[in-house]
Amino acid sequence: MRKILMPLAGVAMLALAFSMAVAADEKKAGGAGVKPGEQAPSFSLQDQDGKSVNLADLAGKVVVLEWFNNECPFVVRHHEEKKTMAETSAKWKDKDVVWLAVNTTNGKTNADNKAVAGKWSIAYPILNDSTGEVGKAYGAKTTPHMFVIDKTGKIAYAGGIDDDPKGDKADRVNLVDKALTELTSGSSVTQPMSKPYGCSVKYAK
Amino acid sequence: MTHGYHPSMRMLAGLIAFALFATVLPAPARAAAPAPADLVKAELLADVASVKPGQPFHAGVLLKIKPKWHVYWKNPGDSGLPTRVKWNLPPGWKAGELQFPIPDRFDQPGDVVGYGYHDEVMLITTLTPPANLPAGGPVELSADVNWLVCEAICVPGKAKLTLSLPAGDSAPTPANAEAFATWTERMPARGTEAGKLAAIEVKGTNPVQARVRFMRPGKDVQWFVVPPEQSGLENVQTNSDGELSSTVSFSLAPPPASAADVWFLVAYTDQYGKRRGAEFNVMLPPPAGK
User: Fold this and answer.
1) Which of A31, A191, A199 sits opposite B150 (nearest CB)?
2) What is the DSSP string of B115-142?
3) Confidence band for B287, pLDDT divided at 50, 70 and 90
4) Nearest CB to A14: which of B13, B109, B232?
5) What pLDDT score does B3 carry?
6) Is residue A27 predicted with pLDDT exceeding 50?
7) ipTM of this predicted structure
8) Which residues of B111-147 are buried (b: 16+ CB within 10 A; e: fewer)?
9) CA nearest A77 in B: which residue?
10) Which residues of chain A make contact with B112, given a CB cutoff of 8 A?
11) Quick one: CA dihedral B47, B48, B49, B53, positive or negative?
């Protein structure tokens, strides 16, 4: 009897230790990310061609971050069906606004990002954040989750691309376009935050 | 709250976990997007075999979900979309609010929390035919159902479900009793029924703190909060003190501009091992200065 019980107790202890490790990790992963008005976390990530893009080099410009995963139907909606991302980024391209997609999806490579940039004719960098570090620093929850960074490096807008999670509104408001319009005309952003929507960011475990 | 354990224990546990993983998953699975029809099978059921004029009955949308995949509760959490049902009913019919069973919580990497269902769920509503419903001819009921089903990827799905039932003046015979009994059991209590299980007290507008006191001991307490439509939940903290009381606190982001409707569902396991839920609707006053 004792011979059977001993290994069982050992397994139970290990299981307990393991569940504690998981609990501690979840705790550590927590955090609400950045909020409007706060300094945008710095990063340096590679684009689909392996070129480094460093946020610090973009000081003095407005930067838009688009959390990206081409396998997510919400991202597909705004790239294939509605062209929201292509149209909005093109509209602001020559107005000192830098648009960057960030792909935090676990396991994605520069080559994957290059392939989808070609497929969808994406005219801006797709940054590789497959480790999830930058996604966690910003608190990116969904694809797409949008952040607008002002010329001084502060978060000016965080949230959804528009106010239409279900994709059925006739008169949806493009909240990133609205924030960029206000920001570049020198006025304050009237809606600096909205609830982001989409698929969960598929972070590396 | 901190957990003390030796780092080597953690490493060993990690190795064991890795070994388990390696055994369970023979090859890294990265399948192509599956066809939506293989992921969720949807069916429309009624708890009666025939319809009597003016007499309400229950209709259920039963979703059978591919193992490991999930669909979403009425508040999907940080991501996802709620499952939606739109009824197409003949003139004079009325549909009640769609009821969602107590959901599961999914903790995904990166602190992304979701609420929903694995394997199977039935969403139930009360349908009321008009009192002047003509007898004889069958009534045709239909529902447009939309869902988002996710695992490693998400796939949207939809179905137009129909059900044809004879109408007559005789008392309807029950139908699908087992399915309705199973899923009615899993619906949270509301109103006076909820009040028999627990009492709620809410403080603050942002952050918000809520406390329930259970009438009987409750274990494994989970809170599910439905924020106002435009707001998300942040910094959600829950804490149970003993088995008679539990609290939740959270911030609404962005904060609501006016008075806001919030639903609190508290789920727990009672002393007989049964999972129960009590749902409370609270109107938060407008934020200060508005």
Assistant:
1) A199
2) EEEESEEEEEEEEE--TTPPSEEEEEEE
3) confident
4) B13
5) 44
6) no
7) 0.79
8) bbbbbbbbeebbbbbebbbeeebeeeeebebebebbb
9) B156
10) 141-142, 200-201, 203
11) negative
Confidence (pLDDT) at B268: 97
Distance from CA of B177 to the nearest CA of A (A): 34
Average confidence (pLDDT) over B168-178: 92
DSSP letter for each residue of B50-102: SB-TT--EEEEEEEEE-TT-EEEEEEEESSS---EEEEE--TT-EE-PPB-PP
Q: Which of B43, B58, B117, B34 is nearest to B82 (CA)?
A: B117
Report the residue of chain B nearest A131, measured CA to CA: B110
> Quick check: A201 pLDDT over 90?
yes
In angstroms, the CA A54 to CA A134 distance is 12
| CB contact B114 to A (< 8 Å) | yes
**Across the interface, do A17 and B153 touch by the CB < 8 Å criterion?**
no
Helix (H) or strand (E) holding B20: helix B7-24
Chain-chain contact of A195 with B232 (C-beta, under 8 angstroms): yes
Mean of pLDDT values over B156-172:
93
List the one residue out of B149, B135, B159 whose CA is nearest residue B54. B135
In angstroms, the CA B185 to CA B276 distance is 8
Of A18, A163, A199, the CB nearest to B16: A18
Strands B189-190 and B198-203, by their bridges, are unpaired
Decide: helix, strand or coil at residue B223. Answer: strand
Is residue B189 within a helix (H) or strand (E), and if so which, with residue range?
Answer: strand B189-190
State the pTM of this model. Answer: 0.83
> B230–A193: do the CB atoms touch at under 8 Å?
no
Query: Would you state the pLDDT for residue A15?
Result: 43
Give me the residue from A18, A20, A30 closest to B17, CB to CB: A18
Under the banding of pLDDT at 50, 70 and 90, the label for residue B19 is very low
Q: For the ranges A100-104, A146-150, B11-15, B182-186, which has the lowest average pLDDT?
A: B11-15
Residue of B nearest to A75 (CA): B154
State whether A72 and B234 contact (CB < 8 Å): no
The mean pLDDT value for A76-82 works out to 96
Q: Which residues of A touch B29 (CB under 8 A)?
A: none
Give B-chain residues touching A198 at CB under 8 angstroms: 79
Interchain proximity B79–A200, CB inside 8 Å: yes
Checking DSSP bridges between strand A155-159 and strand A97-103, what pairing results, if any? unpaired
- pLDDT tens per residue, range B195-231: 999 999 999 988 999 999 999 999 999 999 999 988 9
Q: Which residues of B touch A142 (CB under 8 A)?
A: 78-79, 112
